[in-house]
Amino acid sequence: MDLASAFAHINWLSVVVAAISAFLVGGIWYGPLFGKVWMKAFHFTEEDLKKRSIPKTFGLSLFLAFVAALTLEMFIGVKATLMFGLLAGVGWVATLLGILYLFEMQTMRAYAVNAGYCIIALTVMEAILGAW
Question: Domain locations in the chain?
Answer without folding.
Answer: 3-131
